[in-house]
Specification:
2 copies of one chain form a homodimer.
Chain A: H1 3-11, H2 15-23, H3 30-35, H4 39-48, H5 51-59, H6 63-72, H7 75-84, H8 87-96, H9 99-108, H10 111-121, H11 128-131, E1 137-139, H12 145-155, E2 164-168, E3 174-179, H13 180-185, H14 192-195, E4 203-204, H15 209-218, E5 223-227, E6 233-238, H16 239-257, H17 272-299, H18 301-306, H19 309-312, H20 314-337, H21 346-376, H22 379-409, H23 419-442
Parallel strand pairs in A: 1-2, 4-5
Antiparallel strand pairs in A: 2-3, 5-6
């Protein structure tokens, strides 16, 4: 549906036509349409939407649009929307809004929900508890399939998913899971206990959300149960939320690996000053570290005064060292993120990188030696560059492998040990090695 | 369950105890247990597993383990496992296995399935068709809820998901979707046509799998319908497969961005020679480009013979330029991957990067000027470095912004325009600018 068409229908007050047209639009696509309407039109269109579609469309909006809309809605209208939202979306909303909007939201929420919201708000940021929702189908193990289906019909409409149902005892301890497929294809008299799977994969409320995404990646589930320390079921995380978490975590890793302070807002939504602020800190740290390399160079002034050609190879040696280091660190960081590499794999990884670096170093040294012999006919220089490259590659790959694992060991995010930091460190060592080898071989 | 325990139970032939113990293990965790058993034990344990668990466990194995196991299984055992696999897993299996194993697999598949497999094998790699499965629940719009439930019971057991059901006409054209929740909470006499949603989000068989993951990210679905060019429903992609695709695509992006040829095998599974091969190509390309920077430096031999201190600032200028460039390119590449930045945003992005680079450049220039004035009391040098930094940062951010967008424009993967390539390009320009400014201001 085109924005122009909507504007026309709103102007000519053809609200019923508009309502029918909007039914054909997916709720997730409504926010993009609203973006091009003016304030009056937005609220008019939003009032035309059926309750369910309005709630869904609202949950897909960005915080800025949500805030503006809430300020324009009456308390009753807001209440209707909040009724449609799942608890995790309501909690996210409250976390994103400024305090005056939060007050308006809490006014529109009923007492019982307010209690649940307060509990959910207390889970640490990025924990499983903070992304779970409390609307799920709970069954008893003594129920028959027929009773279970009735229970699903009774509470299913308010549940985020009915695909996985959870079997609890009277203390709300999780005994097993059963999925709707098994319930539907079983006889009405079958007892749930005989259907449920007891090899439950569950997460704790305080587990990191990254652990949650790893479980979704490993086990092909649509939802995972979240339990408290007493193994009582308190919520579920659905796979659609896990996908959003994966994308957020990946973006954060990309940013950290490019020496940017992580930022949850989108690229265009972030102001120029915020962008500059997110980038300047690491640039300053890395710039000052680079002056160490500069300091080393000044120590060898005499060497390059005698053989000025030595300076010409600095960019190539530093560049190759940096690239080799970031290749290794990227593979290790990614391996740690996907659980393919574990902390105690350190010697295995180091041994692998060592062998790779010998092969890569020798090939690079030979290619360079040929180039230097042809261009400068200087075999001493070919030797210097060759040895320097082999040493630099080996060192770069060892650092690229070790530093992310060390970070992990000390419970830091391995992603900060990525290209920029490793490049700067490798620079220092490679320049030192270069001039040491050069002065030794060339007798400077 | 511990491997030692399994070995003991196998040795003492307590197969029934073992079978009961294994029931408590999630199928996805079985392959890890098998890894530490020897060949004889693996096949023994696998024969103990119930049919369904054996099939599930098999689908979670890595290609190497699958191949070994298939060679040890009888044709009848293999047939049992293939019966348990969904069509997409069978097709993946055939694509991964060497030709002699493929022959054994095709022998165990019935005629009808073989036809479907051949069709699925013809979709291009990484297309929606290549990751979809053909087992889904299809309904007619004239069915009542009661008839629909019966249909689900009849074919649901073989469907990968019954959560989303698809309403087709007699030509198998997709008319709408209805989810099990709506069916269950509706009256038995309700007609499906009145329940189904017609604002369908579907994908074409030839769409790229990355597009599929974007749809899962945007619309919170558990499954997406895949249609052919005539809008006939031919399969579905489930969200668990989408998560695997997301992780694979992200790993590929990380590798490309670190100048590594993408590799689908895991870090430890890849041989040392393969690792070296994946890394050497880009290293050689980047190394040879770095010699251009070296060539420029030799042109200014006289300049640094007169002011040797100039050489000491080369690492800092090159490093800062590279870091600024990779900050920008990473943000743009990630924005393109998540659809937040579009091709026609090029001027908007460039304008943003321009303003960020002015702020960042000036701050870096000031910090350096202070450092130089204190350390060397040389205001000319402070000016040279300051101007060079500002120019380098602006250029680096412009290139970091433009090159990924250009790559996208020419249908190349933006990820290849990441840090290493941009760093090398920025190096060339920054050294050129540096010595131009130095010779101009210092009158060299």
């Amino acid at each position: 549906m085109e924005v122009e068409e909507i504007k026309k229908l709103l102007e000519s007050k053809k609200y019923n036509v508009l309502k029918e047209e909007l039914k054909k639009v997916n709720s997730a696509d409504i926010p993009a349409l609203l973006e091009d309407l003016d304030k009056e039109e937005v609220i008019k269109l939003f009032r035309i939407l059926p309750k369910e579609q309005a709630g869904e469309a609202f949950s897909y909006m960005d915080p800025y649009m949500k805030e503006k809309l809430i300020q324009d809605l009456t308390d009753a209208e807001l209440k209707n929307i909040l009724d449609e939202l799942f608890m995790d979306d309501t909690v996210d909303l409250i976390e994103e809004m400024p305090s005056n909007v939060v007050k308006k939201i809490l006014r529109a929420v009923n007492k019982q929900d307010r209690k649940v919201i307060n509990e959910l708000l207390q889970y640490p940021e990025d924990s499983a508890g903070s992304i779970m929702t409390t609307e799920f189908v709970d069954l008893k193990e003594t129920m028959t399939v027929e009773q279970a289906l009735q229970r699903i019909r009774d509470i299913g409409i308010d549940s985020e998913t009915i695909y996985n149902c959870y079997v609890l005892n009277s203390n709300r301890i999780l005994l097993g899971t059963v999925n709707i497929k098994e319930i539907l294809i079983s006889k009405p008299t079958t007892i749930i206990k005989n259907l449920m799977a007891t090899n439950i994969i569950s997460i704790n409320t305080t587990d990191d959300q990254e652990e949650v995404t790893k479980l979704f990646d490993k086990y092909d589930y649509f939802a995972l149960p979240v339990v408290d320390n007493e193994n009582r079921l308190v919520g579920i995380v659905t796979v659609d939320d896990a996908i959003n978490v994966i994308q957020d975590e990946v973006s954060e890793d990309f940013e950290k690996m490019a020496a940017i302070s992580p930022n949850e807002e989108g690229y265009f939504k972030t102001s120029v000053f915020k962008h500059a602020k997110n980038r300047i800190l690491w640039l300053l740290i890395l710039m000052l570290s680079a002056t160490i390399t500069g300091g080393i160079i000044t120590k060898y002034e005499e060497a390059f005064a005698t053989v000025p050609l030595l300076v010409a190879f600095i960019p190539m040696i530093m560049g190759t060292g940096g690239n080799c280091g970031s290749q290794s660190s990227t593979l290790i960081i990614r391996g740690l993120a996907t659980d393919e590499i574990k902390l105690n794999d350190v010697f295995r990884a180091l041994w692998k990188e060592f062998r790779v670096s010998v092969i890569v170093g020798i090939i690079l040294a030979i290619v360079n030696a040929i180039r230097i012999l042809i261009l400068y006919k200087n075999s001493q220089l070919a030797l210097v560059i060759g040895f320097t490259l082999i040493a630099t590659v080996m060192l770069a790959k060892a650092l690229g492998c070790l530093l992310p694992l060390l970070a992990k060991r000390f419970k830091l995010d391995p992603a900060i040990m990525a290209s920029p930091l490793i490049t700067t460190l490798v620079d220092i060592f490679s320049i030192l090695v270069y001039f040491q080898i050069a002065t030794a071989i060339m007798g400077l």
